[in-house]
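User: Can you predict the 3D structure for this chain?
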Amino acid sequence: MSNYELNLSMDELKKRTNKDYLVTKKFLKADAPEYLALEDGDKEALKHLVKAAAILENIHMQIDCKHNLPFKKYLEAEIKKGNERARLTKILFDAQKGINAIDSMTTPIRLAKGIDEKLGKGVYPEDLSKEEFHSVLMRMINDGQDEEVKQILNQRSMVVRDGDKLKGIDYIDYFKDDFAQMAKELELASKTSTDKNFNSYLKLQAKALKKADPMLDAKADKKWATLQDTPLEFTITRENYEDEMTGTIVENEKLSALLQEHGISPIPKDFLGGRVGIINKQGTEALMAIKKYLPILAKNMPFNNEYEQTISTKKDAKQTMVDVDMVMASGDVGAYRGGITLAENLPNSDKLSLTIGGGRRNVYHRQIRFISDMKKFQERLDAILDKDQQKFYNNEADHWFTIGHENAHSLGPKEGSEKLGKYRNIIEENKADMGALAFVDLLTELGMYTKEQRDQILLTAVVDMFPKSKPTMSQAHRVRTVMQNKYFFDRRVYKITPKGKIHVDIEKVVPTAKEMLSEIVRIQIDGDFDKAEKYVENNFVWTQEMNLIAEKLQKVNKTLNGTLETKLADKLLAE
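Assistant: Here is the predicted structure, written as structure tokens:
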């Protein structure tokens, strides 16, 4: 067993594991009415889905950092010896699902000394520098190893050393035994689940876990994206926000030109997560209200005649939507690192399923969006928002905004954004936010929202643009809020009152969002790295106003990170 040195002091661990600093999001309990109402066959299926997600957690740990599993074993051994520091460290390790993370104050959390986060996480060799990576790729291309380089630079391979070169191994082969066990659990679930469409998906997904064939994943994704009226939810999430190594390629003009000449597109690596839940029918019905308007939104996207988008301007939108009562979130989707995912729009634009006629599916996480402490919620508003405008702030409006954000991911260019390198995800998240705001007036005219809801969405979104601290460039979801905040302040969408509170000019929100959306989509169409870099640099500016509100937020909200309480999942795993 490997030996590690714990990094955080006892005082720091006690602080970070205190309930005031470590918020708990409570998923379904073992006696939850939603679970008890399931058919017996679905209850049995849920048990196998939870076990499949637990296996995926094991895989994610290795993709995230090569030390995660050995460090976990070390902690468990130390805990048996009575090591209190190890016990508290394990609480944080389980919450952030790994050794390395970042908290809500943008402070890097390193649970073991000497184990820093790498550009390529656990996907690339730990000792591989950016310079060596580029050099090896150029040498391999010049040696005629185009197919080998394609395998290294696709989204589904683990990269290892092969003499003085590199080799990409499809993750289905790399984690063969784990994926085979996952497939077995999905097949067992498909035998008892009461929904035929869901069972068909589970069988397709199980097949894709047993053979390294991207088309098998595409067929499973295509089926998954059609699921609408199923009792249960199971997803293998595959998103590539975490891989910073592959994104460095576009910064090397010589290497980029060489790859383009040989028809090779570098795609960041997928990080895997598992979602298990029970579909909430009432919440899902509310989500579906927007679906009929999606083709109209697509038609109103900037420069829509210059690109293809997932949602057609002429046909029924290939977009399903479900609200889910959460049972389990494993791996990437459940890692609480300064924040956690509220919802997801998948498959992403780099996935093969979208090229074979597949659509997308939005899944919303009910328990994650619930407010756990209304007193602290009101304290936050009193600290930062003009009292006269507090009537417009509505937490449910934040959910409506999130719905707009997720649907906006399906609008705009499907291809070309990989050329934006490390700015790709920042620009895409920026587009989704601005798309959510730009169409609020149109949706109000169409009858989706009332005038009161319209004002609530617009004000709530602007107030929520204020983070607790300045993020790092690796935090795409937070960088874009700073960019939007700066952009909106420059155009006087909001001001800070003499009492130090936010006051929003609600009527300026939509026109400003439309302006920014057009600029963002233009960058995506052009696929110009330098243009994207300049745009981010010009707008990613931490202003005096942001700092003032951040200091107020820090005083009323001590939370640094969070953890998940999954009592139903724990019970099912133990059976």
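The radius of gyration is 23 Å. The first strand starts at residue 22 and ends at 26.
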